[in-house]
Amino acid sequence: MSEFHPVQTFNDLLSRIVRVLLVGIICGTAASLAALALVYLVSAGSHWIIEAKNNTPGWITVFITLAIPMFGGLIVGLIVQQMSDKRPHNPGDAILAVQSNLKLATLNLKDGILNFFASIISLASGASLGEYGPMVNIGATLSANLQKYSRTEPTVLIGCGVAAAISAGFHAPIAGIIFAHEVILRHFSLRAFAPITIAASISFYISKAVFHTNYLFHFKFSEILYLGEYAGFILTGILSGLLAVLFLRSILYARWFSSKVKIAQQYKPMIAGLVIGLLALQIPDILGVGDQVMRDMLGSGSNSALDISILLLAKICAAALCLGFGFVGGVFSPSLLIGMLLGSLFGLGIEQLFPYANIPMYAICGMAAVTSPVIGAPLTTILIVFELTHSYDLTTAVMVSVVFSNVVSYRLFGRSLFDFQLKSRGYDLSHGRDPLILSTLKISSISHPDFLSLTLGSLAEDAIKQLIKARTNEAFVLDPEQRFVGNTSLTDLLELAQNQGPLTTLDAAVDTHGLRLSPNTSVWTAMHQIKGFVGEAVPIVDDESEAMLGIIYETDLIAAYMHTTRELRSEETANA
Question: What are the φ and ψ backbone dihedral angles of 411, each rounded to 5 degrees?
């Protein structure tokens, strides 16, 4: 049964309500201000660069187009090298922090701030990435570091920060709430839901009522006129799933290629900046976040199929290159634009057969259907569309496309880019939170230092007496230098003494091939290695000195597993 904490007094109830409100308000405000600051600084920086290009002679414009991404890449590379793990952070770090209860990822405040400014410089200088990944990261980092001032679980605080960041960025508080549960927490509980909802609501209010920020795009849609159009939505979803896999594979290939380039890591973003600058001389729309390109496509619809196709391929290559070579940014915005381009291209084809086809509608379907499998958030992307358009009909069309897109992408790639990135770092989320947390618990922390040891060369008769006196059936044999040799049992010693006489040594009864564990072995690994083990206890032996440090029983592993799962279930199912 789930843990339930009924209130005892009115003051207890009031205390809980106030605590939930304060957590939601503080996390929501901090994450919202950080997200809006990121958007403003990126927009201001990009606007300044565009103005500089427009007010200079032609050859200087070419120089600026090439130099700004290169110089930005150099600064980003140097900033990233100051971070603790010398790599850009992304929503995967927030996911890992929650799934491991901050044992495998701590969301260090210094790293979060450095990543925040590196993302601003990346996007303002033209890196073909998005703002929402950095928003999620800074929202999660700020909220996680509020734990020292709050009795709330850090996983709930992270969920609050993430939901608030998405709410501020998209003007979509419901989508922010669902994203926090669907992608970051991956479970639902009232304890998490209440503060997360408040954080997303406060963030939405701040962004809309206080700072009067604009929606990502405006799109009016009336209704779906023909039932046959759902076949087009299905095809859009299938094509989007295939394109999402292509985009994901392109990112992985770019990272593999970057690892093969023999140059210091801090200079690799500069190389990507040069390539992006060269591409931008011919295709300027690949630069930056691409939100204005999306607005223009939904507004005018005058782009030719050739222009759309060229921009589509160029955006995939540019985004993959920027991520692979170390620029800091997200995949959310590139996925939105890539999907919108595919949907528009498909809509143009449909229009040739059915003149009544609504091209912007297919653009929205493609946008959601590509983004959803890339970030692993089908519900979130559907809700974003609904909150931006307020159209049930369009949301229904998007649902169909998203379903088929996820079916295709999941079978060909997996759940999301973030899960793949974490798996490449050795963290497999497919088995749930239990293995992650148990993998951080070393068996040395639950081992027993007391055990019966015998010395190699001792008489079997003496060994039998020690075992009987200790009321145990098993002992561990060490050599004269106290190095572990193996284990022996009372049964084997009795048989040896009976066959060879009481004056024989115990050496022939020592099993030197039994299971042994290192003190750094995790509980999760030990649970797998102990399968098929027969005996009372497993020896823990130092890898270098071969000294025996202690023993661990199977019941110790079971108890550690039960304690971990009990704590997790309490967090996931407990009341607010």
Answer: -70, -35
Q: Which CATH superfamily is domain 10-210 in?
A: Clc chloride channel (1.10.3080.10)
User: Which residue in 185, 169, 178 sits closest to 99, CA to CA?
Assistant: 185
The C-alpha atoms of residue 51 and residue 55 are separated, in whole angstroms, by: 6
Q: Are strands 548-552 and 474-478 parallel, antiparallel or unpaired?
A: unpaired
Read off the DSSP letter of residue 214: P
How much is the average pLDDT of 137-149?
A: 90
d(CA 292, CA 562): 52
Judge if 10-210 and 229-262+288-432 fold alike in CATH terms: yes
Least confidently predicted of 7-16, 138-147, 315-324, 403-412: 7-16
Q: At what angle do helices 460-470 and 490-500 cross, to 10 degrees?
A: 150
pLDDT at 221 over 70: no
Each residue's pLDDT tens digit, 48-71: 887 777 777 777 888 888 999 999
**3-state secondary structure at position 549:** strand
Task: Single out the residue of 80, 66, 479, 472 nearest to residue 282, CA to CA.
Answer: 66
d(CA 222, CA 241): 26
The reply to whether CATH 3.10.580.10 applies to domain 438-563 is yes
- Helical ranges in 290-331 per DSSP H: 291-299, 305-324
CA angle 80, 85, 86 (to 5 degrees): 25
d(CA 262, CA 267): 10
> Domain 229-262+288-432, what architecture?
Orthogonal Bundle (1.10)
Instruction: Evaluate if residue 317 carries a pLDDT over 90.
Output: yes
For the chain, the structural domain boundaries read: 10-210, 229-262+288-432, 438-563
| Residue 2 clears pLDDT 50, i.e. is over it | no
Give the closest residue to 143 by CA, choosing from 102, 186, 173, 103. 102
pLDDT digits (tens, 9 = 90+) for 102-129: 788 888 999 999 999 999 999 999 999 9
CA-based angle 287:277:256, to the nearest 5?
85
Average pLDDT over residues 207-231: 75
- Pick from 266, 334, 421, 373: nearest CA to 123: 334
What whole-number distance in Å separates Cα of residue 399 and Cα of residue 406? 11
Position 293 confidence tier, pLDDT thresholds 50, 70, 90? confident
CB 320 within 8 A of CB 251: yes
Backbone φ and ψ for 377, nearest 5 degrees, come out as: -140, 70
Cα 249 to Cα 258: distance, rounded to the nearest angstrom: 14
The token pair that represents 109 in the structure block: 């405040």
Q: What is the pLDDT of residues 437-457, one digit of tens each?
A: 888 889 988 989 888 888 888
Give the chain's end-to-end CA distance (angstroms, integer): 16
Q: Using CA atoms, how far apart are residues 454 and 462, in angstroms rounded to an integer? A: 9
Instruction: Locate all alpha helices (DSSP H) within 471-536, ordered by sequence.
Output: 490-500, 523-529
Write down the pTM of the prediction: 0.85
> pLDDT: is 61 or 571 the higher one?
61
